């Protein structure tokens, strides 16, 4: 049986698309590299991308130790919990500041589960393969993906409007994008209802 492009659940034109404000870092890569895990150490990921995951790993070990301590000494456990809470508050503030300081200036991006379009500073010819580091600082998520350029249009002062589709993106990251798209669509529907109360 011949499979048509419309059979693909991630065919670009069939998926919901929204405008979103994201920080985007991209680097051209080879077609062979585009098949690698987007989080592979050979790619240059911003430091804050992995920092949050590393902190969460430490927290996971710490939670296990705190449960043991709770059984052995409740007073010390209570004291340590208070100290940990202070550290978590400070860590969160430092992390937010670092991410905002180190990430590229957010830009308007047209986003779907299968790809996105953005303004590049230079022409990226169709067929170019890219590694993408995508951040939504407001909603605290960072996504890495590999992609292929499908179009690049010169928009004068705006730069080059570049459309890409994802080649390799982790399922959990695609699900995160889907959540963000659904949230944005819900926001648009709410605003439309207030703007057109008689519709």
Describe the protein's architecture and organization.
This protein is an alpha+beta fold and 199 residues long. It has two domains: 5-42 and 104-193, predicted glycosyltransferase like domains (Thrombin, subunit H); 49-101. Helices cover 40% and strands 28% of the residues. It contains three helices and six strands; from the N terminus they run βααβββββα. It has helices spanning 47-72, 74-102, 171-195, and strands at 18-29, 107-111, 115-120, 129-136, 141-154, 160-169. It is globular and about 65 Å long. Residues 108-180 form the PilZ domain.
Low-pLDDT regions? 1-14
Q: What would the average pLDDT be, to the nearest integer?
A: 77
Reading off the top of the CATH hierarchy, the class of the largest domain is best stated as Mainly Beta
Order of H and E elements = EHHEEEEEH
- Which CATH-level-2 architecture of the largest domain? Beta Barrel
Number of strands: 6
CATH fourth-tier homologous superfamily of the largest domain: predicted glycosyltransferase like domains
Main sheet attributes: strand count, strand direction, barrel closure: 6 strands, antiparallel, barrel
Protein name: PilZ domain-containing protein
Organism: Agitococcus lubricus
GO molecular function: cyclic-di-GMP binding
InterPro entries: PilZ_domain (IPR009875)
């Amino acid at each position: 049986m011949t499979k048509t492009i419309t059979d693909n659940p991630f065919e670009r034109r069939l998926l919901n698309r929204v405008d979103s404000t994201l920080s985007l870092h991209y680097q051209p890569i080879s077609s062979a590299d585009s098949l690698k895990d987007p989080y592979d150490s050979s790619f240059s990921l911003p430091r804050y991308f992995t920092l949050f995951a590393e902190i969460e790993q430490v927290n996971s070990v710490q939670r296990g130790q705190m449960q043991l301590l709770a059984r052995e000494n409740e007073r010390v456990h209570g004291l340590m919990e208070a100290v940990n809470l202070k550290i978590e508050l400070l860590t969160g503030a430092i992390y937010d500041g670092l991410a905002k300081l180190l990430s590229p200036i957010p830009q308007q991006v047209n986003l779907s589960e299968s790809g996105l379009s953005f303004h590049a500073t230079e022409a990226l010819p169709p067929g170019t393969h890219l590694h993408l580091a995508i951040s939504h600082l407001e909603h605290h998520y960072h996504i890495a993906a590999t992609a292929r350029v499908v179009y690049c249009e010169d928009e004068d002062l705006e730069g080059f409007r570049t459309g890409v589709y994802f080649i390799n993106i982790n399922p959990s990251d695609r699900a995160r994008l889907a959540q963000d798209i659904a949230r944005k669509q819900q926001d648009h529907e709410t605003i439309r209802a207030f703007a057109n109360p008689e519709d």
